[in-house]
């Protein structure tokens, strides 16, 4: 499968990048690590006239701890750099753990944090070659007007399959979005729409520039559990992140988020809240798992049945809560 | 079992014993030897087909059918032909001759003539100056289809009355066989316990690292100026079959076609027949009047497929109270896909290889190879035996539990007593199974640990076997299956010409080792020229694990042949009888008189420099050696000669120095006379026993394999490191089928046509494998060797399944044992809330065969068609899957 023809744009600064985006509007795709974009372009999911290669924008790379205890991470920072950062491992272990499960070591060298946040939603009826998609008559996310996983539905259910966003949601992360009129900050939680087709709130002339981890989120215990068939390479079929702070044996604060079972990563507010003020035991962890499983809406977008994946959200949430309480 | 004496061997095989030295004293074989092509492959210097190009070469791209079953009403290629950069567009009419790997299965056309039979079937081929242009041109080919009802479930397909997949195959039945050996009814009457169950093994594919690639180039005929000879470079396991099928389809004499096999990045059976692109490239090259290369995308590799079919096995086994098997009855239905491929052979292997592992007095077998509208299944590592072996070994475990017998012991109670001929006509001579069981049991601590590990952890044992080459070739004849020529010239270099196809399994290394061992020369002297139909004599290919046994024997005979000539000349120089000479370490000497130590050192030195590929010293050395030879020649009779001196003496004496040898399986190994009796017989069988240790997570159903002890009887290990590699690879591939790999279908659409969603195990979950080599020294194998590449795979799946049973007490009847299937089984056992995988499917007791894999449950209507799609407007009565 050949790559479609495109012109490669290589900006050196954020302004320059944004200017390119403004100029080419819908006819441009952003390349950060390329691990998802390039295969998708070969499958003709995208045939942009221009590809904006951000890799020359040095200011978007790097992990910068602030005096306050907060951390700023450039969107272009390689996942392997995050995985290896001692500072993050010490203060934001949930992010380290989630990052270390992304794809494989080689892909983590190329893949970036921003790319993982912006990762296109995935579905077995969508991530296929042009020839294949023709065979099924296309789908609502690309070139068609039908959904194959929820027949009759008008909404796209492609699953968001990034590993780091549930960890970032637990950490109350914010992102900085650069656009032609300057940059704006928003909580990551508000970034996702919950629709598989237009899964994020990002205008065509904007890009995710930085990620901020607030000082208040530092030093939580953190655990990420990921369901996959293979121990490497696979996207999550379900993923659960838990952060927790304890005092005197009781949970003083906790948050739980999940991925790969909805068109967006989801912070399960109630599941985290029900832990607060209590000491974690099997029953409580189980209850949190039940809560999470009720929120999950897996459909047949990937291997393994939706029933099983929902069930695993329950099991993995329980295990992650217990692990966070006991480690 | 184990070591035979040299005398035993010589009694059995005269050809291998011209010198009577101890047959266990070897200088080349039996030692871990690096593959002769290792440097090329590891440095990237080696050339695979896709690395090749010739001047003026075009890129070929194939248009595939988007429908599982449709009649082609019209194809209009004119828009595509007008696109700048497109040189030719070929369609079915450009080569309307059918072919197929089996003489009984000529049902494929390079490009569809009137019908497409699966999503991915080949419709047209564009030859253009670039891949991008070729792909663009595919979009411009207008094909008008008339949709036909399609069949996806073999049991449904067998009921078809109309709209058959092939008009000459009623009920969409490719072939069925009904065999009874012994007296099955009596056998079951004698049984104290009978187990009966349905097993389902889902479909898997080879997933070789290198996608198929073919480059076809015609030469101009100097007399007519028209297209003349054809040269084809292709990633194939069977260059001669390819040459033969090209000749049929293109209506060219075989002698006008040259097939060259460059390096091949793995085959596993996926390249063991003629794959559509191999012919399409030639058809397109002929039409474009320019060389054309086609390389499949990974998706196309999945569509070309030829993998292991989904198999339903209804198995019934009877045993006595003391663990003796009295009877086995198997009804096997294979979902063969849209074309015959190797199907007839696959369904026969499934039945035939119920025999030759254990002593089973009564066997009844009913096999059905069924056509469905999916890519054709074919041969895959362990061809035909793997799925049935999974069922059989699982059921044997169940029966052992029923009579409270150790699963290792029940296997030991049912051993064959070779040499013997099984009830279904298979001749067994060497039989290392007892030692395989013994060793795995010992090394794994089976007796102390089986059934006694903490809950959630368990051990399972299973056995398997495989042929060392089919005793009957696809096209039945008495001609040799392998021929090997050797040329030795005055440079002392030994060139071996063999048609055997190196596909990564070590064929070239084995050939060099056998030649060097017989000739008593260093390995560095031997150069192997392989798999080029213009240069090398016929070898029918790398499939059914036949190369070591058959091409190895032909190499051995060829080397013996040339050695005889050298010995005759050397004996004359040394005033002795040729029989008294020993060839070893580049020296020829009289038996009993060890060569001077200095000379042995010198011989080693030569080896060192050659192994180090130091070319500069060689020219000089050769001149020196030449004068030395002349000097020594004048000296008169000698006690010993160097290999080169002996070679020069032989050239002086005979003129040209060449040898030839061939191998055809002996008539007594060619099997019974019953219909279908030609498949299954082999000159020798390999044996394997394995113990797997697994743990099962009872909340998630995830299975982790911790270690596999795998003993394999390969006759004699010519290259132990290579044998170990093959054992480890087999276990790993078997583990893939056991736990993670399956092709998932929905209404004929392959849902996971890529390496991301088709999940072969990664290095992370690959367990420690302890390979144990068992050497039974086969009387007919080259130096006693048998196969080692396929036999081990089949044992892995039931070993893991039996270990799951030991760990958590559930018996898996459907593979792969994905976490959800295991969890569903655990829940069913605990009588917890059921986990609904797919309607009516219980992995411990599957009753129905579903059109798509159990891991993916589509409760919807299946693929709707696009608004503009004729399929949607006409809404034909397409048979939906059984879900």
Helix content of chain A: 25-40%
Secondary structure category of chain B? alpha+beta
Oligomer: heterodimer
Q: Treating each run of at least 4 consecutive H or I residues as one helix, how many helices of chain A?
A: 12
Mean pLDDT of chain A: 95
Give the H and E element order of chain A. Answer: EHEHEEEHHHHHHHEEEEEEEHHH
Q: Count the E strands of chain A.
A: 12
Main sheet makeup of chain A: 5 strands, antiparallel
* Main sheet summary of chain B: 7 strands, mixed
Q: What proportion strand of chain A? A: 15-25%
> What is the CATH H-level superfamily of the largest domain in chain B?
Aldehyde oxidase/xanthine dehydrogenase, molybdopterin binding domain
- Read across the widest sheet of chain A, the strand sequence of neighbours is 4-5-8-6-7
Ends apart, CA distance between termini of chain A? 47 Å
- Uncertain segments of chain B are 1-21, 598-621, 849-883
- Which geometry of chain B do the CA atoms define? globular
Describe this structure in words.
The complex is a heterodimer of chains A (327) and B (883). Chain A is α+β, with helices and mostly antiparallel strands. Chain A has 12 helices and 12 strands. By secondary structure, chain B is α+β, with helices and mostly antiparallel strands. Chain B contains 23 helices and 31 strands. In chain B, the strands form 8 sheets. A 7-stranded mixed sheet of chain B has the order 3-5-1-12-9-10-11, with helices on both faces. In chain B, strands 7-15-14-13-8-31 form a 6-stranded mixed sheet, with helices on both faces. In chain B, a hairpin with a 2-residue loop joins strand 22 and strand 23 (587-590). In chain B, helix 11 (386-402) runs parallel beside helix 21 (793-808), helix 15 runs parallel beside helix 16 and helix 16 packs across helix 19. The relative contact order of chain B is 0.13. The model of chain B is unreliable at 1-21, 598-621 and 849-883 (pLDDT under 50). Classes of the chains: A alpha+beta (327), B alpha+beta (883). Chains A and B meet through helix 8 and helix 12 of A and helix 4 and helix 22 of B.
């Amino acid at each position: 499968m050949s790559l479609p023809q495109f012109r490669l744009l290589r900006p050196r600064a954020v302004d320059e990048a944004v200017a390119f985006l403004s100029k080419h509007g819908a006819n441009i795709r952003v390349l950060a690590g390329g691990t998802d974009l390039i295969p998708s372009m070969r499958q003709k999911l995208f045939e942009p006239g221009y590809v904006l290669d951000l890799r020359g924008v040095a200011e978007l790379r790097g992990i910068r701890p602030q005096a306050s205890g907060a951390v700023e991470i450039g969107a272009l920072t390689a996942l392997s750099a995050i995985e290896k950062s001692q500072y993050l491992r010490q203060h934001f272990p949930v992010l380290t753990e989630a990052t270390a499960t992304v794809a494989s070591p080689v892909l983590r060298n190329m893949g970036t944090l921003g790319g993982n946040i912006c990762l296109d939603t995935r579905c077995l009826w969508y991530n296929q070659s042009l020839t294949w998609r023709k065979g099924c008559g296309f789908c609502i996310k690309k070139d068609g007007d039908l959904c194959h996983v929820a027949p009759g539905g008008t909404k796209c259910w492609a699953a968001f399959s990034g590993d780091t966003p549930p960890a970032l949601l637990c950490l109350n992360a914010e992102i900085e979005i650069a656009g032609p009129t300057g940059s704006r900050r928003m909580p990551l939680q508000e970034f996702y729409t919950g629709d598989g087709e237009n899964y994020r709130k990002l205008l065509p002339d904007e890009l995710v520039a930085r990620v901020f981890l607030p000082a208040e989120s530092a030093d939580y215990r953190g655990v990420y559990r990921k369901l996959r068939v293979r121990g490497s390479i696979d996207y999550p079929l379900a993923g659960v992140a838990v952060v927790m702070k304890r005092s005197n044996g009781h949970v003083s604060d906790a948050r739980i988020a999940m991925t790969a079972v909805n068109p967006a990563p989801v912070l399960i507010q109630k599941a985290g809240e029900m832990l607060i003020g209590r000491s974690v035991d099997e029953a409580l962890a189980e209850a949190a798992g039940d809560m999470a499983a009720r929120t999950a809406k897996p459909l047949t977008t990937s291997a393994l049945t939706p029933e099983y994946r929902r069930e695993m959200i329950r099991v993995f949430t329980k295990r992650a809560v217990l692990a966070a309480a006991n480690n | 079992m184990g070591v035979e004496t040299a005398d035993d061997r010589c009694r059995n095989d005269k050809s291998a014993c011209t010198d009577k030295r101890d047959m266990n004293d070897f200088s080349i074989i039996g030692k871990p030897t690096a593959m002769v092509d290792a440097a090329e492959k590891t440095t990237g210097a080696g050339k695979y087909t896709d690395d090749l190009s010739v001047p003026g070469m075009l890129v070929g791209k194939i248009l595939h059918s988007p429908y599982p079953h449709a009649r082609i009403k019209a194809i209009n290629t004119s828009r595509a032909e007008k696109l700048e950069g497109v040189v030719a567009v070929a369609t079915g009419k450009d080569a309307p001759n059918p072919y197929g790997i089996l003489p009984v299965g000529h049902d494929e056309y390079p490009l569809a003539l009137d019908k497409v039979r699966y999503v991915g079937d080949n419709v047209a081929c564009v030859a253009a100056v670039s891949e991008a242009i070729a792909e663009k041109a595919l979009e411009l080919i207008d094909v008008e289809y008339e949709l036909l009802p399609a069949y996806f479930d073999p049991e449904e397909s067998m009921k078809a009355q109309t709209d058959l997949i092939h008009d000459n195959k009623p009920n969409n039945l490719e072939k069925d066989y009904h065999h009874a050996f012994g007296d099955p009814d009596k056998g079951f009457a004698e049984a104290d316990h009978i187990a009966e169950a349905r097993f389902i093994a889902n479909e898997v594919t080879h997933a070789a690292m290198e996608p198929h690639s073919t480059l076809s180039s015609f030469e101009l005929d100097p007399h007519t100026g028209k297209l003349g000879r054809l040269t084809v470079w292709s990633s194939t396991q069977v260059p001669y079959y390819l040459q033969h099928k090209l000749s049929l389809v293109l209506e060219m004499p075989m002698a006008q076609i040259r097939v060259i096999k460059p390096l091949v990045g793995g085959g596993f059976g996926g390249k063991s027949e003629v794959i559509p692109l191999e012919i399409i490239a030639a058809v397109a090259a002929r039409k474009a009047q320019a060389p054309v290369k086609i390389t499949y995308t990974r998706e196309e590799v999945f569509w070309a497929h030829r993998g292991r079919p989904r198999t339903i096995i209804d198995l019934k086994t009877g045993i006595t109270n003391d663990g003796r098997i009295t009877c086995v009855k198997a009804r096997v239905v294979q979902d063969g896909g849209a074309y015959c491929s190797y199907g007839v052979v696959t369904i026969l292997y499934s039945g035939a290889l119920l025999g030759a592992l254990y002593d089973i007095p009564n066997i009844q077998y009913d096999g059905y190879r069924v056509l469905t509208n999916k890519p054709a299944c074919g041969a895959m590592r362990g061809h035909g035996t793997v799925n049935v072996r999974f069922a059989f070994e699982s059921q044997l475990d169940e029966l052992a539990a029923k009579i409270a017998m150790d699963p290792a012991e029940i296997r030991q109670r049912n051993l064959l007593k070779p040499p013997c001929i099984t009830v279904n006509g298979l001749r067994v001579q060497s039989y290392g199974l007892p030692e395989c069981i013994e060793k795995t049991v010992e090394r794994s601590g089976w007796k102390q640990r089986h059934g006694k590990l903490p809950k959630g952890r368990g051990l399972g044992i299973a056995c398997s076997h495989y042929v060392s080459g089919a005793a009957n070739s696809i096209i039945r004849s008495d001609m040799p299956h392998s021929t090997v020529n050797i040329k030795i010239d005055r440079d002392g270099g030994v060139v071996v010409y063999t048609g055997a196809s190196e596909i990564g399994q070590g064929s070239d290394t084995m050939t060099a080792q056998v030649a060097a061992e017989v000739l008593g020369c260093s390995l560095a002297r031997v150069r192997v020229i392989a798999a080029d139909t213009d240069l090398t004599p016929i070898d029918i290919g790398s499939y059914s694990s036949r190369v070591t046994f058959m091409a190895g024997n032909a190499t051995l005979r060829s080397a013996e042949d040339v050695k005889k000539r050298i010995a005759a000349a050397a004996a004359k120089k040394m005033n002795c009888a040729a029989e008294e000479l020993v060839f070893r370490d580049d020296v020829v000497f009289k038996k009993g008189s060890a060569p001077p130590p200095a000379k042995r050192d010198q011989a080693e030195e030569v080896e060192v420099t050659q192994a180090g590929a130091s070319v500069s010293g060689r020219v000089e050395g050769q001149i020196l050696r030449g004068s030395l030879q002349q000097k020594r020649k004048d000296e008169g009779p000698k006690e010993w000669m160097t290999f080169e001196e002996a070679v020069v003496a032989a050239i002086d004496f005979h003129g040209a120095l060449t040898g030839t040898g061939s191998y055809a399986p002996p008539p007594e190994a060619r099997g019974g006379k019953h219909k279908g009796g030609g498949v299954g017989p082999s000159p020798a069988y390999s044996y394997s026993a394995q113990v797997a240790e697994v743990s099962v997570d009872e909340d998630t159903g995830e299975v982790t394999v911790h270690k596999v002890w795998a003993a394999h009887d390969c006759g004699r290990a010519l290259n132990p490191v290579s044998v170990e590699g093959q054992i480890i690879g087999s276990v790993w591939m078997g583990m893939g089928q056991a736990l993670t790999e399956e092709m998932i279908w929905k209404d004929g659409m392959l849902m996971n046509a890529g390496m991301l969603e088709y999940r072969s195990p990664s290095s992370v979950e690959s367990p420690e494998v302890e390979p144990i080599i068992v050497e039974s020294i086969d009387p007919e194998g080259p130096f006693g060797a048998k196969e080692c590449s396929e036999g081990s795979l089949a044992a892995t799946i039931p070993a893991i399944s039996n270990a799951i049973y030991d760990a958590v007490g559930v018996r898996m009847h459907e593979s792969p044992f994905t976490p959800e299937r295991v969890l569903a089984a655990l829940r069913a056992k605990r009588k917890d809330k059921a986990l609904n995988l797919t309607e009516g499917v219980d992995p411990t007791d599957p009753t129905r065969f579903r059109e798509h894999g159990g891991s993916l449950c589509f409760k919807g209507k299946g693929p709707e068609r696009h608004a503009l799609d004729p399929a949607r407007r006409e809404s034909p009565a397409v048979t939906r899957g059984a879900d």
